[in-house]
Specification:
This protein has about 260 residues and is of the alpha/beta class. The protein has one domain: TIM Barrel, CATH 3.20.20. Helices cover about 45% and strands about 15% of the residues. The protein has twelve helices and eight strands. The protein has an eight-stranded parallel β-sheet with strand order 7-6-5-4-3-2-1-8. The mean pLDDT is about 95.
Length: about 260
């Protein structure tokens, strides 16, 4: 039975005061009966502070990005070791904003995925199509390419699938991120089911066990319908994760 994961991506928002208020607001409303995992991904410079603030709670902390490099003269980068050293347990890789704004290729994202695993972090592999790609009916071609890059990085397909299975997949239709437009529950389920079917053709164990999150403008108003879908195992929440009450409302729905 796959656990539900509700993850908040705070993107480039917040300061010491607002993050303290947000974390305390979330912590104060947690219910010990909930079975779902809760994850927050602050900007890298606030990972340490967030880890300190969530102590004593079930909340986990993740990074928003990491370098594929081990260490060295890479000004401005943050390594997997650094994130792990601060207490992070997860890290996002290949978020659509990293792919589009910073031109991260499928191959680079695969390197980052591998580096995260190497450093003991659980990578959340973000995949998804643009509006143009959806209209051209190439959604699954795009998504398969993004997944295949991770599998192929390991050269041995069996090993690659096993490594993929140690992470999380977040399907984020690019056209529904920060736009207020959400894929319908049926549209989201269709892609989630197609991803799981694609993986099942190669490894049924990985397909059945891997968490696939929905990451396109999920909020309290639509979370129940989305999370009720068979192949949606949680959400990667953007704007709604910056408001404690809204984020907790989604967590409560996940239960």
């Amino acid at each position: 039975m796959r656990k539900t994961l509700i993850a908040g991506n705070w993107k480039m928002h917040g300061n010491v005061a607002s993050i303290e208020s947000l974390v305390n607001g979330i912590k104060s409303q947690l219910d010990s009966s909930w079975q779902s995992d809760i994850l927050v991904c602050p900007p890298s410079i606030y990972v340490d502070r967030t880890v300190q603030l969530i102590k004593g709670s079930s909340i986990k902390v993740g990074g928003q990005n990491l370098s594929q490099q081990e260490q060295g003269a890479f000004t401005g980068e943050i390594s997997g070791d650094m994130l792990a050293d601060l207490g992070a347990e997860y890290v996002l890789v290949g978020h659509s904003e990293r792919r589009s704004l910073y031109h991260e290729s499928n191959e680079l994202v695969a390197e980052k995925f591998a580096k995260a695993l190497e450093k003991g972090l659980t990578p959340v592999l973000c995949v998804g199509e643009t509006l143009e790609q959806r209209e051209n009916d190439t959604t699954m071609d795009v998504v398969k390419g993004q997944i295949d890059a991770v599998i192929d990085f390991y050269q041995d397909k069996t090993a690659g699938l096993e490594k993929l299975g140690q992470g999380v997949i977040a399907y984020e239709p690019v056209w529904a991120i920060g736009t207020g437009v959400t894929a319908s529950p049926e549209q989201a389920q269709e892609v989630h089911a197609a991803i799981r079917h694609y993986l099942a053709e190669m490894n049924t164990g990985v397909a059945e066990e891997i968490q696939i999150l929905y990451g396109g403008s999920m909020k309290a108003a639509n979370a129940e319908e989305l999370l009720a879908q068979n192949d949606i195992d949680g959400g990667l929440i953007g704007g709604a994760s910056l408001k404690a009450d809204e984020f907790i409302a989604i967590c409560k729905i996940a239960g």
